[in-house]
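Help!! Second protein's tokens look totally different from the first
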Amino acid sequence: MTLTLADVRRIASDIAQQQHPSLDVIGVTTREGSTTSAEVILAIRDCYVEPYRVVISLSRQVSEAECRVAVLTQLGEHLAAPAIGRVSAEGV
């Protein structure tokens, strides 16, 4: 089974809001040259680096549970970056 882009967006949005209230999914698209992968573009509101964008790449040929783990893992890596630690308190 292949997840749709809408599925990937829903999953990424859910995980993003659980991990960091300032994260917004602003787009999901297929990866160039691939019909089974997706790129998710997220924006971090009120970050000292404006605009701050995060792009994660995901396989769409996984279960929803596996996709959730992949989103959680990749966002965790980005959220550990120094710029995220400096998000203003007003945006949280």
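Here's the second one for comparison:
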Amino acid sequence: MKIKEILNVVLINLIVFFALISVHEISHTAAGMLLGCKYQMSILLDSNLIGPYTEMYCSNNYLLVFLSSLIITSAFSFLFLLLNSPTRNLFWISFGMSIVFSSLDITIATNLQSLFYPVVSLGFIFTAAGEYFIADSYVKDNFSLNLIDIEREIN
């Protein structure tokens, strides 16, 4: 792989990463609003560098609020399957990141702390598979997502 192709893959990962973080936190807020929770607030960038989080108070239905992020980010990930091959390989990366981002939510919702590491590992397996499939497409099919080098598409 050339440097531009590696930069393309890194850029794609960053775009998917930040899009999923936004969708993840906003889905908590939207679910909370729909379920009647009080004081919904999503923090995407915190000046204390704690990381993204959502604050709200729910007297009931907290399970749906926790799991809404996995459901909505997974639905977002499945949209990549509608794209042409090999771009649909972004599904694996997006779905894996969805699982990783929701691992703490799943642990809290089920009250099983022992699930955290297996869920994170499963997410990383999906993400690693997606990275492999994207890299394989670059090498075998001369595939490019053309985010950095648009010149190749014009010629």
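Reply: Different proteins will give different token patterns, so don't panic. The chain has a mean pLDDT of 83.
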